[in-house]
Design brief:
- The protein is built from three helices and no strands.
- It is mainly α and 141 residues long.
Length: 141
């Protein structure tokens, strides 16, 4: 059976210039960016330490991987600080733990996204610090 024009659903196309960027106003990707950076740092840190200890054996000093993990942590924290600045500037995020957002408007939603993104940035930066600390404390495999 052939469909009549009334039965066929219309396809809405978005011009390329109107497509939202990955971390743009109205996008929720900023919410998952900071925890993703922490997860990548966590995996890379433990992979570096595991490969180092597997190749050189038990009892080898962790001097070199220690600085690799610390440098990687510094880079990741710098990226998270950039995301936090983006959350503050673009979304109007504030670092208030118990903030009530009761309005149902576009601006209130943007503030909520900024607030949550900023808190996730802080949480992810702390998690990265807690990932780096064991590498700084432990001296051997």
């Amino acid at each position: 059976m052939a469909r009549t024009p009334e039965e066929t659903p219309e396809k809405k196309t978005v011009p390329p210039g109107d497509a939202p960027r990955v971390v743009d106003q109205g996008s929720v990707w900023i919410l998952v960016a900071a925890p993703s950076i922490w997860a990548a740092h966590f995996l890379l840190s433990y992979w570096v330490a595991a490969i180092w200890c597997a190749k050189l054996g038990r009892g080898t000093p962790l001097a070199e991987p220690r600085w690799i993990i610390a440098g990687l942590g510094a880079l990741c924290i710098a990226a998270i600080i950039g995301l936090a600045v983006l959350a503050i500037r673009r979304y109007g995020g504030v670092f208030v733990i118990f903030e009530e957002i009761t309005q149902s408007s576009e601006r209130a939603r943007d503030r909520f996204v900024g607030h949550v993104a900023l808190l996730l940035c802080v949480l992810s930066a702390v998690a990265i610090l807690f990932t780096v600390i064991p590498g700084m404390v432990l001296g051997q495999c």
